[in-house]
Amino acid sequence: MNRELMGVFPLWKPAGMTSFTAVKEVGKRFGTKKAGHTGTLDPDVEGVLPVCIGRATKIVEYLTANDKTYIGEVTLGFSTTTEDSSGDMVNQLSVDRLISTEEASSVLTSLIGPLEQTPPMYSAVKVKGKKLYEYAREGIEVERPSRMITIYQLELLSDPRRNEDGTVSFSFRAVCSKGTYIRTLSVTIGEKLGFPAHMSHLIRESSGSFQRKDCLTLEKLDEAVEREEEEECLISIETALSMFPVLKVDENMEERILQGAILSIPEEVSNVDESVWALYNQQGECLALYKRDEKRAGKMKPEKMIRTIRS
Question: tRNA pseudouridylate synthase B C-terminal domain: from which residue to which, for each copy (predicted)?
């Protein structure tokens, strides 16, 4: 390719592929090693995985921070080492009573709001510089730091059904904050109902503003590459950063921004309750994200440079 492509490719990651491999495959098709995803999906999970290409890798952290929507399935009757169906069975207890739709729905409702979670041992969370799943593979159990997450919505999608092996399963839809483990949430749902449980299926329906309907598979990207239309598959940095209020600047101010200068907050927005703005030039290109300067009243400073004087 003659020039660097930049933007966000809305990948529908297939089940059976790691997020690392998915990013590598997308980058290969765009002819760049400069690619990064906005939130890991487990290998067995399919769904929305926005991949930042080129200069768009600078905004990964802002897209990662967004809320996520999942369609999950919990199965009551046994728990596993990984908290999903890929792990070995840990505890087993026959579901010897009827789990009604009303009871399941009530439990889900009770979990809406702030919730303390302890990441599963089979996760990418780091403890003392080492990922938890690395400890798990060595058979080492370490103390895991709990953290607060938020469940914004949690609704029952199917009536509880009894499976041939005596377990009981039902599906749910969850809208949650960054860092939420649906595997762990499934275990908690089981505990509330009085049974060991695990997550038996999961799809990520959305990640921030990226929805399932917006996504493309690797196969669709291959078709675009054959037609030399892969650039049309990218969502612009400007669209991806649409959650931030926009400030347009003139050419003189543009040059100062490209040099990372500290600027005065425009009077018309000085009283607005915003802490970060996206600064655009007259051509509609996002130059940088700026934030209020806590040390200088009425000033703002660079939060993230998207373009510089050299680019």
Answer: 183-241
